Structures are given as structure tokens and as C-alpha cells.
Amino acid sequence: MTSIGILGAGRVGTNLAAKLSAAGHRVTLGVRNPAEAATPGTAPRITTDQRTAARTADIVINATPGDTALARLTDLRAELAGKLLVDVSNATRDADDGLPGELCYPGSSLAERLQAALPGTRVVKTLNTMLFTVMTAPETLATPPTAYLSGDDPDAKRTVTGLLGDLGWQPAWIEDLGGITTARATEAMVLVVPHVLRLRGFQPFAVSLAR
Question: Which domains does the chain have, with CATH numbers?
């Protein structure tokens, strides 16, 4: 059993918490206002503030909004030191309809900025190229989806690959792209997402490789 702290209790964070808890991990949800956190009983988990969640976990998942994640996690540098940080966010500015618009870090990526700001933390980017429901139920798509991995530490990526397996991802569906700089490619894939959502609605999908 691994101790996992998830920063963010929106649809992404709670969805991951439920599946990882069911897989036997000890999950702590880190929220900005623990007293206001609702949805009791949705998963066997602990809810606390984000600083405590980061400090007490072995692995931390960033499921906070990508446009503010860099400042928020930089403030947790001491708590994240020596930890594995899994970043599943996309840093975009919202379009007029609230869907993802421009990238916050063109020519770079949130994952790269996080790794630079947190040199004592091993950052791995993954699961940012799909609707949140596919993160924990990849088998529901008619075509096998792809979960991309970006990160500089091979051991950290192996650990994340194991977590992906707990979420239902088969080894053949996981694509290790290489170092953390490759995250700029997968983060840029979010630019196709609003067009798909406007045409199809919030139906499960993933931006995947076809072979």
C-alpha cells in the first residue's frame, strides 16, 4: 500500500482518489478549505489541507488547475522535497466559453516549470490528454487509449507505470516519451480538446496513438 496525496478535490482529484483507494492505496485529498469539502462517502479517504497532504504522502498527484499550479506547488517546495510528483494538469487560459484556450507556457510546459521550481522533487507528467473519466476507466473506450509519460527519473516513471496499472491501464497503452521536456508536446495536445468538446460534448475520449 502506497501513501498518495492528491492536491485538488474537483472531478479529476476525486475520480483518481476513488480508484486508487479501491486499489488499496492510502489516499489523502488535499483541499484549500477542508471544512468545506463535501461528498462524504465517495471514497475511503482522508481530507485535509494541501500542505499536510503533500507532507504526509509518499507520492503526490497534482490535480489542481494548471494555470495556478506552479505558484501553489512552489509554495510547497519543502513538503514536496524528496517526493514523486505526478502532474496530470494542463496549464491553459480559459476561452470565452470556459473551455481550454491558450497555453500558459508556450514553448515550455507546466511540468518543466514544476521540475525547475522543485529540483528536489521527481516530476512525472501523465494522464493529461483525455477526459477525466478515461483516467480511471481506459477500458471503456472502443479504441485503446494512450497514457503518455514524461520525466527525467526512470525509477519515478516505473513507479507511475505501476499506478497506471492500478487505474486500469495495460502496459501496451502506456507510452514513455522520454525526459520532462517531452511534456510540452502532450500539454499542447490540449488545444484540440475544446474543439472536440464543442462538437461532441463531454463524451469520454483520449488523444492517442494508433498503430
Answer: 3-200 (3.40.50.720)
